[in-house]
Write a structure and sequence with these properties.
Helix 1 crosses helix 3 and helix 6 crosses helix 7. It is globular, with a radius of gyration of 20 Å. Helix content is about 25%, strand content about 30%. It folds into 3 domains: about 70 residues, Ribosomal Protein S8, Chain: A, domain 1; about 80 residues, Alpha-Beta Plaits (2-Layer Sandwich); about 80 residues, RNA-binding S4 domain (Structural Genomics Hypothetical 15.5 Kd Protein In mrcA-pckA Intergenic Region, Chain A). The protein has a 6-stranded antiparallel beta sheet with strand order 10-15-14-13-11-12. A 4-stranded antiparallel beta sheet has the order 5-6-4-9, covered by helices on one side. Strands 1-3-2 form a 3-stranded antiparallel beta sheet, with no helix packed on it. With about 260 residues, the protein is an alpha+beta fold. The longest helix has 15 residues. Strand 14 and strand 15 form a beta hairpin. About 25% of the residues are buried.
C-alpha cells in the first residue's frame, strides 16, 4: 500500500475529531488521548506536524508498545509521562490455555472500552500483563478473577517491571498467484479465497493498521495484514516467480 492512499471516511472523521480536541488545548493546557493504535497515531502525528508551539510524548507503558497514549502540551511546559499501570494476570497451566482475545474479552466484559486498554503482552508460559491507565488498574485487578472458565489471579505492577516474552512468530512459505491481499491472507491463514473476500468486505481486515474493504489491494514486502480474531501476517520476503507465473512468498504469522 502506498502512503498516498486517500483517507477513508472513518479516518477523516477521526482526524477531524482529533483536530477539535487540539483546538481546546488552550482551555485544558494539556491533552491525554486514549490508547491509539498505530494507524490512529500516524493520523494524529500528521496533524501535530502542522501545529506550532506544541510538543507531545508517545507512551504505551514500555518501549515496544503497539498501542500508545499521546500526551500533548504547550512546548514551554515540562513534559511528563502518562500515568500507566500493568495488571499482571496469571493462571495454572500454560500459555495455550489463554489467548489475547480471551484476555481482552474478559477485560471489556468488566465495562471498559477498547480504547481504555493498551497492549496485552504474554510474559511467561502462564502469565500476561494488560497495560491500562492508572485509574483503571485496581478496578481490573479486583474484579478480574476468571477468563472464560479458567480462574486467574491479578496484581498491579509498574510497567517498568514488564519483560515481554519474545514472540518469533511462525514462518509460512508458499506461492501466490498475485500479491493481492486476498491471496496473501488465504496463504497465511489457510482459508479459501472466497471466504477471505467475504471477510475483507465485512470490515475485519486491516493493512498496516488501516481498515480495508477491497480484496484486490496489492501488497508489498514489509506490509502487515491483520485479520480480526485470527492474528496478523508480515510479508518478510517476495521471491521470484515459478515457471507457472506464481510468486514465492515468505510470511511471519503472529497469533
Amino acid at each position: 500500500m502506498t502512503k498516498t492512499t486517500p483517507l477513508s471516511e472513518g479516518e477523516k472523521q477521526w482526524q477531524q475529531h482529533f483536530m477539535r480536541k487540539l483546538a481546546d488545548l488552550h482551555k485544558d493546557k494539556k491533552i491525554y488521548t486514549s490508547f491509539l493504535d498505530p494507524r490512529q497515531l500516524e493520523l494524529a502525528e500528521a496533524v501535530l506536524k502542522k501545529e506550532t508551539g506544541l510538543s507531545y510524548i508517545i507512551y504505551g507503558g514500555y518501549p515496544e508498545a503497539e498501542r500508545n497514549i499521546l500526551y500533548i502540551f504547550p512546548a514551554e511546559h515540562q513534559p511528563a509521562l502518562p500515568a500507566l499501570k500493568a495488571v499482571q494476570v496469571s493462571w495454572s497451566g500454560d500459555k495455550s490455555d489463554l489467548g489475547h482475545r480471551d484476555l481482552l474479552g474478559a477485560v471489556l466484559a468488566l465495562g471498559l472500552q477498547r480504547d481504555q486498554v493498551g497492549d496485552i503482552v504474554f510474559t511467561e508460559e502462564n502469565a500476561a500483563v494488560i497495560i491500562v491507565a492508572d485509574d483503571k488498574a485496581e478496578y481490573i485487578s479486583s474484579n478480574l478473577d476468571q477468563v472464560g472458565r479458567l480462574p486467574v489471579h491479578c496484581m498491579v505492577i509498574d510497567p517498568g517491571q514488564l519483560a515481554p516474552a519474545k514472540d518469533d512468530g511462525k514462518d509460512v512459505k508458499g506461492t501466490v498467484a498475485s500479491l493481492r491481499v486476498d491471496a496473501v491472507l488465504s496463504l497465511g491463514f489457510g482459508i479459501s479465497r472466497a471466504r477471505v473476500v467475504r471477510l475483507v468486505k465485512g470490515g475485519v481486515v486491516r493493512v498496516n493498521w488501516r481498515p480495508i474493504n477491497s480484496p484486490s489491494i496489492q501488497l508489498t514486502e514489509g506490509d502487515q495484514v491483520s485479520l480480526k480474531g485470527r492474528g496478523r501476517l508480515i510479508i518478510t520476503s517476495v521471491g521470484d516467480e515459478t515457471r507457472k507465473g506464481r510468486i514465492h512468498l515468505k510470511l511471519k504469522k503472529y497469533s
